[in-house]
Every structure is written in C-alpha cells, then in structure tokens.
Amino acid sequence: MKNIVDPRIREDFDINSAWKAVELAMTCVADTPSRRPTMNKVVMELKDCLVAERARKGTEQENGSQEQISKNRGETELVLDGGFCIPRTNSYGHNFRDYDVESERQQGVENFYRVNHINQTVDFVKKMRGEYEKLDKIEMSIWDCCELLNEVIDESDPDLDEPQIEHLLQTAEAIRKDYPDQDWLHLTALIHDLGKVLLHPSFGELPQWAVVGDTFPVGCAFDQSIVHSKYFVQNPDYNNPTYNTKYGIYSENCGLDNVMMSWGHDDYMHLVAKENGTTLPSAGLFIIRYHSFYALHKSEAYKHLMSEEDVENLKWLQIFNKYDLYSKSKVRVDVEKVKPYYESLIHKYFPAKLRW
Fold first, then answer.
1. Is 70 annotated as contributing to ligand binding?
2. Taking a C-beta distance cutoff of 8 angstroms, is the pair 108, 155 a contact?
3. Which amino acids does the record list as binding Fe cation (predicted)?
C-alpha cells in the first residue's frame, strides 16, 4: 500500500485521508463485482476524505502555519501561498515554457533566442542604456502606455499570442483576487511588461530580440540554464576572458543593481519607473527588472552576485512569477470594469505623466 501512494500526495494531503482514498479506488476496480462498492458508498467515503482534509488545512491556517514574508522596510506582509490554481497547460495545450515541444510557435521562438543570444553583448547593452536613459521619446500616463500595448505581440513567448494588455490585466487580476490588500503588487503586475512599448514605432520599433524574452547578466559567463544557451557560443563576449568567467567584471555579492542585464523591456521599465519617482517599494522595482530573469528565479543561477536585499526581494518575485506565467489564457478581462481601480493605484504610486 505504501508504494501506491504518490509522494506528491504525501506532501499535499494528510496521509491517512490519502490512503483512505487509494483504498477506495482499489475496491472500485476489484475483480469480483460483489466486492465493488455502490456509487452512494463511493460518494460518502470521498466526502469524508474531503471533510477531513479541509479540517486539517483549516487547523494549520489557524495555527499560522502558512509561510509569510515581511516586506522590505516593514511596510506590509504577504502570504506566500495564495489560492491561485496553476493550470496544467497553456492555451496551445502544451506545458508552460516548453521550448522544445513541436508547436506552431516553437520554430519562431528558437530562432528568436538564437539572434538574441548572439547580439546581447556588453557593448550593446551600454549603447541601449545610453540611448534610452534620456527618457526623451514621449510623455504619457501609465494607462496610455497600457493601451499602446494593444498592438504588441511577444514572439518569444510560447504560451500566449494575445495582445499584451490582456496579459497585464490577467496577471494583475489574479494577484488581486488572492492578495486583495497588497495594492502595490496589483499595480506592479499591471505595469511589469510596459517596457515592451520599445517594439512600437513611437519608441524606435526595436527588434523583438532587443525587447522581449528571458534576460540574463552580461559581463560574466552565460549560464547553461538559460533557454537555448547553445547559441551563446556565437556571442562575441563568449570567448572574451574579461567576460567569460564566473564573476567576470563583477564581485561576489555585489548586488544585482550593479549587474548589467541583457537589454530589454524589464530594464527599460525599471529605468522609467525609478527616474519618474515612483513610490513603489523596492520589491516592486525588483519584480519589474528581474521578472524575465528565469535563470535566477527558476534555476537559481547567479545567486553568487546577489546582495542580502536581493535575496529578500527574490521571495516576492517568486510569488509574482506564478501569476505572471500561469495566468495567461484566452479568457478576456473586462477592461472598462477594472480600469477605475487601476487608475487609482497609478495615481497613488506614479505622477500623472511620465517621461519615456
């Protein structure tokens, strides 16, 4: 019997109720019909298991067993495990972030990363930062920028082909449902991808490889956990002894603020928010700059460059990532219905007009 119970069941459920459910399932497929339970018995037995499980989880919550994280500078608290349910597959019927599956978008996504990994160099990042830190492209509000994204499709994303404003609102609304009191996190979710306006003609219409996709540090060795890392061998920095060691131009625990990331929408939106005087907490800014840094928050690469503050903020990013990744769907959000709420948050944390 012990070998029958999946280890995942042991982690998520009380072992006694899990065994009871397994035993019931075994009797349902018994060779002798007379040994099989009636449907009424099956329903009642499973109901007992469910009641027991709910009672157990209710007790755990009352005892404060759910992990909580104190936000940097003591401004708020957030329960680590919300009620958001992770779907099994994306809108194409495949696993999320599966870059090897033969899908209708896979070939284009892989080619995107080939070009990205060849061209994202230290020199390129310095050039882009120098150009866009001027914030001289346009002045507009956060919501105007959200609407500008209606025309943008992220070609690096194997999970979604909807307009970006749909993803922003899906993510924000999913977090809002689970954490209703954490308004800064709702707004962070709404704006985290606004840097993708770099794809728009008003911002120079940069190529996709210079705006979207997973991000990674430049100026040190490229980690093997990065998606399609095989293409880095064609990057000019790959064989440069100044840049191809573990630390490269950085030092241990120097802090991610001091690390150059591959250029894209994360770094740009972080720059826009910071230079326009946002009052979002440091955790919000951390999420904006590193939400595409999957080598860190999924594979735990580059942790040797993190400061103590980075370590704390990473916990918030890992919470956010569940919603950023798995809330993508074909279900539309009623934009006009939720717009007043998010406009109130924008007014709270940002000026009316921002320099972009």
1. no
2. yes
3. 167, 192-193, 265, 291, 324
- Same domain for 154 and 51, yes or no, is no
CA atoms within 13 A on the CB side of 166: 14
Residues 6+ apart with CB under 8 A from 259: 217, 219, 250, 302, 305
- Same-domain pairing of 197 and 344: yes
- 324 annotated as ligand-binding: yes
| 161 annotated as belonging to a binding site for a ligand | no
Q: Is 329 annotated as a binding residue?
A: no
Establish if 2 belongs to a structural domain: no
Task: Quickly state the pLDDT bin for 5 (edges 50, 70, 90).
Answer: very low
Number of structural domains the chain divides into: 2
265 is in an annotated binding site: yes
Residue 291 labelled as part of a binding site: yes
What global pTM score does this model have? 0.72
196 is in an annotated binding site: yes
pLDDT at 107: 84
214 assigned binding-site residue: yes
Same domain, 77 and 122: yes
Question: Are both 178 and 317 inside the same structural domain?
Answer: yes
237 annotated among ligand-binding-site residues: no
73 known ligand binder: no
What band does 93 get if pLDDT is binned at 50, 70 and 90?
very low
Same domain, 174 and 60: no
Per the structure, the complete domain to which residue 175 belongs is given by 70-355
Q: Is there a contact between 206 and 221 (Cβ–Cβ < 8 Å)?
A: no
Beta bridge partners, 79, equal 68
| Three-state DSSP state, 52 | helix
pLDDT (tens digit, 9 = 90+) per residue, 272-306?
999 999 999 999 999 999 999 999 999 999 999 99
Instruction: Say whether 192 counts as a known binding-site residue.
Output: yes
Average pLDDT, integer, range 100-119: 83
pLDDT tens, 321-344? 999 876 556 568 899 999 999 999
The pLDDT value given to residue 333: 87
Same domain membership, residue 212 and residue 91 = yes
List, for residues 206-218, the tens digit of each pLDDT value: 999 999 999 999 9
Strands 77-79 and 139-140: unpaired
Residue 167 counted as an annotated binding residue: yes
- One domain for residues 110 and 220: yes
Closest by CA position to 122, among listed 20, 22, 261, 312: 261
Would residue 322 count as lying in a domain? Answer: yes
